[in-house]
Amino acid sequence: MSKNRGVVYMRPGKVEVRDIDDPKLEAPDGRRIEHGVILKVISTNICGSDQHMVRGRTTAMPGLVLGHEITGQVIEKGVDVEMLDIGDIVSVPFNVACGRCRCCKSQDTGVCLTVNPSRAGGAYGYVDMGGWIGGQARYVTVPYADFNLLKFPDRDRAMEKIRDLTMLSDILPTGFHGAINAKVGVGSIVYVAGAGPVGLAAAASARILGAAVVMVGDFNRDRLAHAAKVGFEPIDLNAGDNLGEMIAQVTGSNEVDSAIDAVGFEARGHSGGEQPAIVLNQMMEITRAAGSIGIPGLYVTEDPGAVDNAAKHGSLSLRLGLGWAKAQSFHTGQTPVLRYNRQLMQAILHDRLPIADIVNAKVISLEDAVQGYESFDQGVAQKFVLDPHGELKAA
């Protein structure tokens, strides 16, 4: 193993690529673990969730190594790892999960009860998620490897599809989870809020699930143009504040069967200012009676940069009475990636889901991560994939 490098959160608005410690088969509290592996990172992506931390919208502390979207090659394993071999290429769910607790056994791996002493749910390189070191790096440790890791069946085939397969760690299952929870099916009319990578992954998921119409709404016209290019109906929110009327121009009705919130707590209204509950309230307005709303967009318990004191503690002004009166269903929370990633891998390998093109993936070097963060923060219509060892470029 050569010297490790990683993307480190320094302070609000600033990240750096720095030398970091080489990974060890250790838990965050320093305990030796034999159920883990060390990976040579093949690809690792910049996520919108990372941007919340970098913008100073969480309680993340300086020095945090970022990155929870990881694909890698096993280079070392503990003696308790039985199902993986040195050299295997694997996808890492962003959820750190033990595989043994009540939640894990029911496939609710996003809220594992044992890997985070402060609350349910763990993740790599993320605030308040158990202290697990992030994977925007050259090497990383993954615990409970037999349970967590999805092994790709063939190295050459995997490397041919690596730009797509790298999306299995988070955004594709997250978008799919949103579509599943919005009960998208054959013939569904679907609205997705947000044309960023997760929104596009949700739209792609709705399409593969059989939706008749998939609309994607945003203020960012570059992202909307890309959404239209890959086959979705763009809804330009700059055109007015009556979302139902804009939807009706596409479908003839101001309501949809399924709505997916891929925006989260940094949502903005037409005034340009933040309105953290606006998307959730719009979802209730436009979703038909007995329709469903999937909420893969991130909402946090503590937001130091929120617009009011209530929102600083995750309290939002929701029109819950409207959703109740319409008998709508809602589903929130982190995606249990393991519930979906194997099926989605098969869809990718068999050319059913060209997700890299749909989210407009752009491969850059690990050393260029700072520029990637800056561009992503400016709203560029791309998904940045970091290539720590130059293997994607070679592929």
Number of strands: 17
CATH topology value of the largest domain: Quinone Oxidoreductase, Chain A, domain 1
Estimate the helix proportion, in percent. Answer: 25-40%
Low-confidence stretches: none
Q: Given the C-alpha coordinates, what overall shape results?
A: globular
What is the helix tally? 15
**How would a crystallographer describe the biggest sheet?**
7 strands, mixed
- Using only C-alpha atoms, the radius of gyration works out to 20 Å
User: DSSP strand (E) fraction?
Assistant: 15-25%
Strand and helix layout:
Elements: E1 5-11, E2 14-19, E3 37-45, H1 48-54, E4 70-77, E5 89-92, E6 95-96, H2 102-105, E7 122-123, E8 139-142, H3 145-148, E9 150-151, H4 155-160, H5 162-165, H6 171-181, E10 189-193, H7 197-208, E11 213-218, H8 221-229, E12 233-236, H9 243-251, E13 256-261, H10 278-286, E14 287-294, H11 320-325, E15 329-331, H12 341-349, H13 355-358, E16 361-365, H14 369-377, E17 383-387, H15 391-394
Parallel strand pairs: 10-11, 10-13, 11-12, 13-14, 14-15, 16-17
Antiparallel strand pairs: 1-2, 3-4, 3-8, 3-17, 4-5, 5-9, 6-7
Helix pairs in contact: 6-7
